[in-house]
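Have a close read of this protein, sequence plus structure tokens, and explain what the tokens say about the fold. Thanks in advance:
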Amino acid sequence: MTMTTIKLPSRRLRSHARSLGVGCAIALAALAGGISPLPAQTIACMVNGEPITNLDIEQRTKLNFLTTRKQMPRQEVLDELTNEKVKLKEAKRFGVDPTASDVDQAFGSMSQRMRLTPEQLTKTLEGQGVRPETLKARLKAEMVWGSLVRGRFKESLQVGEKDVAAAAGDSAQVDAFEYKLRPIVLIVPRGSATVTVDQRRKEAESLRERVKSCDDANSYFKSMQNAAIRDTVTKTSADIPGPLRELLDKTPIGHLTPPEITKQGVEMVALCERKPTKIDTPKKREIREKMFSEKYEAKQKSYLADLRKAAMIECR
């Protein structure tokens, strides 16, 4: 189904020669790049009364290629867009309907992970012929579907600790600890010279030699200018990345970890306590997340299949 073409009023067509001149001028301007003809909004599919146009398919194909570097067949793209229409309608039925502000926030979070501003991400997309609205539409569908599936099937998606322990077997006996930590930062203003950063790093190294307890750390850093010591946080081995976990296991209780340069300045961590725990281990966390992922994937597939069977889908 093609959208109706807007016709010029009949009074402008009285002179055949004049119309021909206007038509030639438009064609020449378009060839010169002065006018960009609008793409035809041809409907490829109707899903529960909502259209998917050929332009939608073209845009999503470009976006998918940009993110995967693979050329997805047209039918797969159409299926993806159809699924999203079905998901959005079902989510709205249960009151899961993010606002434009929510979607913009997700767009901003994605740009931040890519170390870009939203404006820079928009320009990057447009440079590849992709409208930012195309990415926002995909983000919205992902947001609502995840919330809907987790919300509706929360009980059946739970992973039992007995199942985790059984799957972990002997590997669950790997040592795990609970750490009490106090993050510390020696503030370095952004754009500071390398010499300034080096001075603060040397200062941090000097303090590491003097600090023998968390009380020492508290008294030193609370009174120091351009420095901050944060409140105590409690983490288990499963919460902490491997490299930092190894570092904490080598650090004596009450001492500071080696200084690290970050955006805030020179950062260290005071290790206030480290004690064995059976609450969680990295291996058990990994197994639990894998089991949940498998349950979630199976549930969302069957749910979507049922919704597609009940949907009104008409494709040309």
Summary: Residues 175-276 form a domain with the Chitinase A; domain 3 fold (CATH 3.10.50.40). Confidence is low (pLDDT under 50) at residues 1-38.
